[in-house]
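Lab manual, section 2.4: Encoding a predicted structure.

Procedure: take the sequence of the chain (342 residues), apply the prediction step described in section 2.3, and record the output as structure tokens. A sample record is shown.
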Amino acid sequence: MALLDLFESENRIISIVGMAKNAGKTVTMNHLLEEMAEKALCVGVTSIGRDGERQDIVTKTDKPLIYLRRGTLVATAEILFNLSEVKMEILEVTDFFTAMGRVIIGRTLGDGFVQIGGPTTNASIRSVSEKLCTYGARYVLVDGALDRTSSASPAITDACLLSTGAVVSRDMNKTVDQTVYRASLFRLDAVTTPILVEAWDVAECERRPVLVSKEGTVRVLSEVTTALGAGKLIAAEIEDGITAIVIPGALVSQTILDVIQTVRDFGNIIWLVGDATKIFIEHKDWLYFMRIGVNIKVRYDIKLKAITVNPYAPSGYFYDSQLFVKALQDRISNVPIIDVMR
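Recorded output:
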């Protein structure tokens, strides 16, 4: 199956998110780049963080390099622009700054390897990606990572691929469990109930949590600037008849625990967050919350198009590829599972 065939015409900006370092994210990107080159499509690439170096700075292991064809558009930091092996013409020096200098948009003048490191904020990644489209990119690939999972947010990219692999754990079953959990978050459906949509708009505008009553009243918690560490404050504001808690920022386990320990009918309350990248809950906590009836929804859904797998770990161990793919496919329906190393 060609990865490119999975994307629809409106999926122009695509993120590739890794479950861990060396999960096959760069191999996935190179596969997509090759498929797009075969169709003579103009492609743009950028990254949240740094990628394309020969050796991982943290783990000191060798990494696959990012290989671009002539005419590819690149948005990367100033230092990395100069370190790339392929020559590039400068199209624009942007106003976006990183620790490695300003972000430069260029076009490759030949085939070769590059290092990419783009903006670090959601708004700037989206803006740079749209600039790449303006310069002629049919698709823009955004290199992300699980610790920078915001690149999968629908506010940033139009669709995403999730890369997982043996590097996550020596125990294949644990890797499958973690991947299934992450995929289940990415596949949460967006709410369409008018009152919840309205409440989300209020929460996003005010940048504060809001409560929704069964009568449809939306109340801003003006004393709570963020839900982080404010679970008890939120719980104290919950009266009978509250049907939803809308959180415009991150949702963590402790916030939920503080509420369910205080509010008797917490099972009748919906927790609404922007999208799955705002959910920071450990797998074991999620299983507990689901078992006791905690109801978590998202305002915007993520278009997860496929899960790519790398059955090999840099330290030398590996999984049986067919068993790994089958174990994932048995538990994740309607999402292609593709071994990018085969």
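Check your result against the sample. DSSP finds nine helices and 20 strands in the chain.
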